[in-house]
Amino acid sequence: MRNVLAAFVWLLAAAAPPEIIDRILAVVDGAIIMQSDVTAAVRLSMVPAASSADPIPAALDALIERRLILEEVDRYAPPDPADADIDRRVSEIRTRAGARFETVLLESGLSVEQLRRQVRDDLRIESYLQQRFGAMQPSDDEIAQYYREQQAAFTRDGTVAPLDAVREQVRAALVADRRSATIREWITGLRRRANVNVLPR
Q1: Quick one: which H or E segment has residue 146?
Q2: Is the dihedral of CA 40, 45, 46, 47 positive or negative?
Q3: Nearest residue to 50 via CA among 41, 61, 59, 63
Q4: 5 found inside a domain
Q5: What is the pairing mode between strands 196-198 and 159-160?
Q6: Alpha-carbon distance 106 to 110, whole Å?
Q7: Is 6 part of any domain?
Q8: pLDDT tens per residue, range 114-165
Q9: Domain with 40 in it: what CATH number?
């Protein structure tokens, strides 16, 4: 009997290690982000495209920031988005994924209803950020200065467009840059105050 047991243990040890189906990649204030969460976000294009060959680190960082922002959103409880808006966003995700859509959901253990809840939260985040950081109105002097500093962006065929002809474009670009910088600084503060633990892959 002992010899049979020893042989069985040896066979187990000699066998190939089991495939890891999922693992924890990060814990954000007690909320867990799994590898399947990150993989699904990448494959469904729900995070910005990575500039490196390995998309996982950038996608994980995006999901960590999403979790931190969502904590703030939940504190202020903005109105839920309309079902039609959720349907439209889910349809866009389905279209981008194409024939892979159902496969990605199955392999990630993600149901359509869970995807809808994620989309709902994404729309709540967008609404919150627009409400909190959307009211930026630069002065005429600030618009003129930005135009001078970014003239390459308003040059066509070697000719710089007159400010009066592109004023609204300049204003929109300036507001977008300022809003992005302000949100980035705010998120940095959230991350500094949070308990974020990124586990080795």
Answers
A1: helix 140-149
A2: positive
A3: 59
A4: no
A5: unpaired
A6: 6
A7: no
A8: 999 999 999 999 999 999 998 888 999 999 999 999 999 999 888 999 999 9
A9: 1.10.4030.10
Domain boundaries, position 104 = 17-198
Report the C-alpha dihedral over residues 121, 116, 82, 131, rounded to 10 degrees.
Answer: 20
28 within domain boundaries: yes
pLDDT at 8: 44
Kindly give the pairing relationship between strand 31-34 and strand 24-28.
Answer: antiparallel
The whole model's pTM is what? 0.80
For the record, the structure tokens of 97 come out as: 């994924």
| Non-local CB neighbours of 198 within 8 Å, separated by 6+ positions | 25, 26, 60, 64
Q: CA 109, CA 67: separation in Å to the nearest integer?
A: 20
* Number of structural domains the chain divides into: 1
Look at residue 79 and tell me if it is in a domain: yes
Q: Look up tokens 């974020």; give the residue.
A: 196
Residue holding tokens 């060959």?
53
Identify which of 40, 180, 38, 186 has the alpha carbon closest to the alpha carbon of residue 104. Answer: 40
Other CB atoms within 10 Å distance of the CB of residue 170: 24
CB 50 within 8 A of CB 58: yes
| Region of residue 125 (phi > 0: left; psi between -120 and 50: alpha; otherwise: beta) | alpha
